[in-house]
Amino acid sequence: MLEQLRVAQYQFTVEALEELRLPPYEGATLRGGFGHALRKLTCLHQDRHHCAGCGHHQDCAYGYIFETAPPPDAQVLGNLEALPLPFVIRPPQDQRPIIPPGGHFQFGLVLVGRAMVYLPYFILAFRELGRMGLGSSRAKYVLQRVLAQHPWNGGDEILFDGVDVRVCQDRWSVDYHAVVEQARKLPSDQLTLHFLTPTRLKYGGEYVEQPPFHVLLRSILRRVSSLSYFHCGQQWEFDYRGAIERAQGVEARHMATKWVDWSRYSRRQGQRMNLGGFVGEVSYRGDLAQFGPLLLLGQLVHVGKATVFGHGWYELLDQEA
User: By C-alpha distance, which of 264, 288, 101, 75 is closest to 190?
Assistant: First the structure.
């Protein structure tokens, strides 16, 4: 049981002071700007390129959020290529390429476990990013509002009104028990998943465009177990092999997906990275009741590669395939 797992989501509202030009799936632009602003606000050694070896790594907001280090006694999940970061930036859903002066746009933020304590740093950094300017044109904006949002019941609360920060993250976070209760409301025999942002699921050494259910489940299990271990302080004892075997009995009934090419330039690696993935709808039919909590967790924390940019975001739809 994931007793220590906590997930919270927030909505940020921004007013453009200058014309904002944003690329498709703006999560990478927001994430890059946020990282630069957070480092400027918190890093004590601006001349360093990496946090490794810094004596303040474990206590620094930037060090934890962007270069999470494993605990000294880490015994599991050592085969991960990189430790999962404890946040997801969800891009605006309306995908407008240009925001005129005076226009508004909203984006989401998901925090997991210990990262919830750092919410004020996210707010301050995104406010600072507005002063610095966003994107290649360095367009200025004002952070107007931050809401804590319950993922299912529609409740919300203002945590930042443009002036003051009021943080009460525990009230709006959900735990595994809440996820299980919500999952009881899902259809037990069929579900449709709408993938909103490019989703990168790898199986057999290749990325898939039309994912079998067991491939999706494998990705959810990897992500949830690693987030729980590195950011919630709990190793998840779970019958992974049995769940994957049962997942192979779930049938894909409808596939309406397409591959979207997407890339970004990584300053750290000094090269352009191809991070395309599939979007669209996939319907599954079978004994889905047992997988309901996992599907809801995947919806909350995203799945696959590049989730920090908002990739791998899907919604569960109830309609029949």
Answer: 288
Euclidean distance between CA atoms 147 and 133, whole angstroms: 22
User: Cα separations (Å) of 143 from 24, 32, 106?
Assistant: 21, 17, 10
* Nearest C-alpha neighbor of 184 from the set 206, 161, 152: 152
CB 288 within 8 A of CB 187: yes
Q: What is the pLDDT of residues 205-225, one digit of tens each?
A: 999 999 999 999 999 999 999
Which CATH architecture group holds 181-317? 2-Layer Sandwich (3.30)
Task: Give 195's strand partners.
Answer: 280, 314
User: Whole-angstrom Cα distance, residue 299 to residue 312?
Assistant: 9
Beta carbons of 120 and 167 less than 8 angstroms apart: yes
Rounded Cα distance, 77 and 43, in Å: 28
Name the segment(s) of the chain with CATH classification 3.30.70.1900: 181-317
Q: Is pTM beyond 0.70 here?
A: yes
- pLDDT tens readout for residues 109-122: 999 999 999 999 99
314 three-class SS = strand
